[in-house]
Structures are given as structure tokens and as C-alpha cells.
Amino acid sequence: xxxxxxxxxxxxxxxNEVTIEPKDWMPxxxxxxxxxQISQHAHSEVVGMLPEGNWITRAPSLRRxxxxxxxxxxxxxxGLYLYSAAETLGVSRDDLYDxxxxxxAKYSSIFNYPTLTWADMGAIGWxxxxxxxxxxxxxxxxxxxxxxxxxxxxxKEESFHQRQGFEIMLTLSxxxxxxxxxxxxxxxxxxxxxxxxxGPPDADSPHTAQSVRWRIKRLTNDELRQKFIDVTVxxxxxxxxxxxxxxxxxxEERGHYDFGAINWDEFYNVxxxxxxxxxxxxxxRKKAWEEGKWxxxxxMAHAEKRKTRMNKAAQAA
Amino acid sequence: MKDTNKAxxxxxxxxxxxxxxxxxxxxxxxxxxxxxxxxxxxxxxxxRRMEGVxxxxxxxxxIHASDPEESESLYDPANDKxxxxxxxxxxxxxxKYM
Lengths: 317, 98
Hints:
The complex is a heterodimer of chains A (about 325) and B (about 100).
Chain A: H1 3-15, H2 28-47, H3 49-53, H4 62-87, H5 93-101, H6 119-136, H7 145-173, H8 177-196, H9 208-213, H10 221-239, E1 249-251, E2 256-258, H11 264-274, H12 278-291, H13 293-316
Antiparallel strand pairs in A: 1-2
Helix pairs in contact in A: 2-4, 4-7, 6-7, 6-8, 6-10
Chain B: E1 11-17, E2 24-31, H1 35-46, E3 54-59, H2 71-75
Antiparallel strand pairs in B: 1-2, 1-3
């Protein structure tokens, strides 16, 4: 087959909603875009453990601590599922780590904000995981098989993350005046960055059309953002918290909530590395990687030694 | 290959039996220094929610996969052998339990 006919065959599979698997021919751009998207997601899961790790030792009860630990452990697992999916495209795990640690690869900007109070564990679960789920559910039907299968696993586990966050918010909202204030303050701080998680408006997102065509994106940034706002406004009512955006208003004609202007300058500024915690997050990751080197090497040396010993024993027998 | 990659742990494929009586099914992959560590990691990553009662791990390099470009020669010959399916045979309605 010529490259041209390979391309035709690939397009036909994509158009007929057939899944692409690692050994299938695929255009270079499809492969590159997938590696970038999947590894960015993997990095986000891994860096996403840091803001929450900040509260493990200070969780208010044993139950909350066990739940938070389980959630963070899940995130490590999600990172692993996604790195594995990226590796099927021919990139090595160490190269992906290098890209993260050198600052070449991006991760979700939301994790560059600090977790100042316990309520942030609630807001992150409710809003950040809520936004992530909104993003991820359509990706369970994405065109690349290993990615879709990883997303199915991630989504299954993620729903407890959002519920536990909402439960924290609900408990604080029904608590003392101080606790309720803490919940509201946390909501105010996380609301706008959560909306930014869906990425720039469609008009400023030049690759959306191609990604939708390839089915590695199933809904546009603006569509997902609107969906998230519509469900979250109703959930905030249950909590009895005020929306941090005074322009939130039901629009009968559109059948959606209208909302205020998002500060995209802030978004681009954080993406560029100037958020409150960018430097700290990256340094923590790098330190963990470097200080873990002797463990990785020792495990490898131990495995080699054991193999040699077993071979010797086999020869002697 | 870059120097940093020399120490990368090998890749393993993980297969999980979800309950007694069922086949092991591919669950995903992971890196580990040896089989024992692969098993421990598989347990931690893939069976945290009672997803399995048995685990197989095999180093990915030992898996041989068919080539998608050979699909035609591999699978098409089955297309014209519909007599291998029970529905190929017309039986009178009176025949029961067959």
C-alpha cells in the first residue's frame, strides 16, 4: 500500500467509528497529538497528587485520611494507565518523565494553585475532579484503543473522588459559621481555575477541529465548560453556597446558564509558569525522581543478581 | 537510546481473572524490575476494588502479536465457510432441541 492508500484506509476506520490499535498504521500527526494529549493527562494525574498530599497528615479524622489516601493512590494509578497508553505509541516512560521534569511538557494548570485550607480537599474533589470527569467521560469513546480503555478505568474510579469532595463541602456547609465560610472561600478560589481546565474558548483553540475529526476529542472546550457550569450551579444550591460569579443567570432561550467573563490572561500566565506553585510542583517532582534513583537502580541490580543465581542453580541441577 | 533509559525497568503485561471460572483478561501494563515486583505492582494497581482473584504477568517482549496488514490472509478465508455455523442448516420445524 502507498502512504496515500494507508491514509485512506485510516480515514475510513475513523469515519466508521472503528478503533485504532497500536500496530495499525496511523498518520504521524495523529500519533504526535495523541502522545502529547495522553502524556499531558498522565502528568496531570501525577502532579495532581501534590496539592492533596499536603493535607494527608492533617485530615480531620481517620475516615477522611483513609479516603484521601485512597484517592491519591488512585491518581498514581491513573497516571500509570495513561503513561502505559502513551508508551504503546512508541515513546518511553523515561522520555515522558524527562519532558515533564525539563518543563517541556505541560500538565493541568489547576495544580499550580495552593491548597490553603481543609475545605480545598472538598473543592478539589467536587470541582476539579468534576471538571475532569466531564472531560474524560467522552474520551472513553476516543478513537485510540489503549487510550479509550485507560479512560474507562479512570472514569470508573473517578466518581468516588467527586462524591467524597462533595461530601466534605456538604459537611462544612452544614457546620459552624466558620466552617461554612471556609467552604465558601474555597469555592470562590477554585471556581474560575476549574472553568479554565476545559482550555481556551473554541475560537482560540485551532486544533479542536482536527482533534474532533480524529475522535481524540469528542466535545469542544466551550461545550464541556457549559455542561460543567449547568450541573455545578444546581449542586451549589444543594450546598447552600453562593456562586462566585455574579453573572450566573439561567438563559431560557439557550437552555443553559449564562456566565461572566473568564480571566484568560491569568490562565495563560499560569500556563507560562507564573502560577503561585508552578516552581514548587516541578521541584517536588524532580526531587522525588532524583532521590528515587537509587531505589530504581537497586531493584534492577537485585533482579539481575537473583536471575544469575537461579541460572547457576539450574545449571548445577 | 539515551543514558537515562538504561535503568528503565522492563515493561510487563498484566492479565486478571475477575472471578473463579472466567478467563484471564488483559488489564494493562506496568514497569517492574522482576516478576515478583510486577505481581506486587499489578495487585496494587489493578485489583484495588476486588477486580480479580488471580493475576498473570508476562514481560511484554515475550508477546508476539499478529500484524494488522496480514488481516486479509488470516481472517478472510473464514468468510466463505458459513457451513461452520449451525444456522447454515435448514431443519424442519418439528425437530426440537437441536
